[in-house]
Amino acid sequence: MVSGSSILVASKEQLSCDFNGESVILNLKNDSYYGLNEVGTFVWDMIKEPKTLCQIKDAILEKYEVSPDECERDLLELVNDLMANELVQVSEEANN
């Protein structure tokens, strides 16, 4: 289960490129292509380096006009889709 402290990072087994403000991603494991819209591309660009779900949500809320509830719902849907397609790795933040 993904939580606010979950750390997300793009899988190393993919190639992606920007195409007119949207992203096209090739999963190297199964040779499948995936497309992301503008907001999905914003998230994808963020997770090229490890980020927590909360960091991503806060950045979306700062950049786009969206309610916190809608943002969280849509972000979780995107993250679950990326996980299902093996395009993102998720881990829990280490307790220090």
Structure, described:
With 96 residues, this protein is of the alpha+beta class. The chain has a single domain (6-87), classed as Outer Surface Protein A, domain 3 (Alpha-Beta Complex). Helix content is 39%, strand content 30%. The chain contains three helices and six strands. The protein has helices at 38-46, 53-63, 68-84, and strands spanning 6-10, 14-19, 22-27, 32-36, 51-52, 88-92. The chain has a three-stranded antiparallel beta sheet with strand order 5-1-6. The protein has a three-stranded antiparallel beta sheet with strand order 2-3-4. Strand 3 (22-27) and strand 4 (32-36) form a beta hairpin. Helix 2 (53-63) crosses helix 3. The longest helix is centred in the C-terminal third of the chain and has 17 residues, at 68-84. The protein is globular, with a radius of gyration of 13 Å. The mean pLDDT is 93.
Question: What would a concise description of this structure say?
Answer:
The chain contains three helices and six strands.
Chart the SSEs and their pairings.
Blueprint: E1 6-10, E2 14-19, E3 22-27, E4 32-36, H1 38-46, E5 51-52, H2 53-63, H3 68-84, E6 88-92
Antiparallel strand pairs: 1-5, 1-6, 2-3, 3-4
Helix pairs in contact: 2-3
